[in-house]
Task: structure prediction
Amino acid sequence: MVDKSEKFNWLVRVGYFSRAILYAVLGLIALTSAQQIAQGTNGIFQAIENYPAGTAILWIMVIGLTAYALFRFCSLFFDIENNGTDKKGWAKRIGHGGSGIGHLALAYSAYKFASSDTSGGGSGGSGGSGGGAQEAASGVLSMDFGGTVIGILGLIFFIVAIFQAKKGITGEFMHRISGQAPSATRWLGGAGFLARGVVYAVIGWSLFKAGFMSAGAQQVKTLGDAVASLAGEGFIFTLTAIGLLLFGIFSLILARYRIIPDLDKDAGVPSFRA
Result:
C-alpha cells in the first residue's frame, strides 16, 4: 500500500489546477476561435504557449496532469475512493484508469510544447492536431490483437462517458467536496460533467471504430479533436463548449476544496455536504 503524504495531497491539487487551465482554455477557444479549435488538442496548448509566462504554465501542467493521472491510477489499483470490488465499483475504477490514460496523454502533449519552446524549436504542434495519439494508436494496431486493445480502450471511454453524465445528473461528485465550497459548485460541476460525457463518448467512438471497425489510426481523437469534431453540430457544440468552460471553473474550485482521500480504502466516503 502506498502511503499518503502532504506532497501527494499538494500534487493532486496542482493536478486539479492544471485541469482547470486545460478545460477553461478549451472552452474559450471553442467559443471564440474556430481556426484554433480546428487544430484540436494542439490548439489548446498553442493558446497557453502564447500567454504571458506560457512556458512556465505548460511545465506546471506537465507536472499537474501527470500527478492527476497517477491519482486516478491509485483509484484503480488501490481503491482510494472506496468504490469497492463489485461490478459497479470495478466499472468506476476502470473508468478512473481510462481517465488516467487520457490525462497522461495530455501531460505528454503539454511536455512536447513546453520542451520545444524551451529548446527554441518552435511550436510543439507541428505534427498535427492528434499526431501523437494517432501515432501511438498506429503502433498498437500494428501488433497482434492491437485492434482489440484499442477497441477495448474505446469501451472504457464509453464507460467513463456514462459515469461522467451520471455524475452531472445526480450530483454525486459533491460527496468529495468540502462543505465550505461555493454554493454554485453543484451546477458548475453538473454542467461540466455532462459536457465531458459528450466529449468522452466521441473519443470512445473514435477508438472503437479504429479498433473494432478497422477505420485506421487516423480516426483516433484526443480531447481537443473530439471537441473540434462537434463544431458542425450547432447548439450541441455550443452547449458542450460552455460546459467545458464551466468545468474548468469547477476544477479550479476542486483545487482548493476537493477532499483528497487517504490511500486507504477503509477510510470511507465523506458524508454528503449540507
